[in-house]
Automatic annotation (TrEMBL):
This is Golgin subfamily A member 3-like isoform X1. The keyword Coiled coil applies. It comes from the Eukaryota. It comes from Xyrichtys novacula (Pearly razorfish). Residues 173-198 are annotated as: Disordered. Keywords: Coiled coil. Residues 48-97 form a coiled coil.
Amino acid sequence: MRIMKFRWNPAATQGPLKRKKLENNKMEIVLQSGKTNAKTFSVQNNKIDEYLAKKREKRRKHREAVKKAKFMNLMQTDALRQEVNQLNDMLKRAQEELVIEKLGGMLLSGGQTPMLKDSDSIVQASVDLQLERLKNQRLQEELDKLKAAHCDLNRRYQADVVSVKQQMDSLQQELQKQMKTNDCGESSTEAAEAGEGS
């Protein structure tokens, strides 16, 4: 013969009012735990919102820094370009003056000068010729200085352009990296919210 175990169920032996009371107590416990979960989710949601707001602000500041760097690059490039153009103009003027002076010197030394009648005129022409030679020498030195300055400015301009481009590239890479991490962070929080909602 088999012995059956009997399990005592207080709800089965008690009246309908007691059963209702026990069910209400169970429901209250479930509701209270749900409220605590809702509070926890609300706090976590607020933290996530704060984190995302900070990330957006950081991204906005980074974009502003990139725009500012681009603007500064353009400003520096324009300033250097204007300086190079000014030096080119000065160089052209100096070359033109030098050519004119050489032509003038060639005319004087080529025997095409008017006949000088007295010795004072010859002395004066000799002095003028020496002055022109000194002037030509000074202009040539100035031209050489301008050429050296022009080359130096071109080198600095090229170096500045390269460094600004590198800076701009690094800022753009950093911005893209932050955007990728933000996008990954946002998608993982959305996935977490969707998982908790189901």
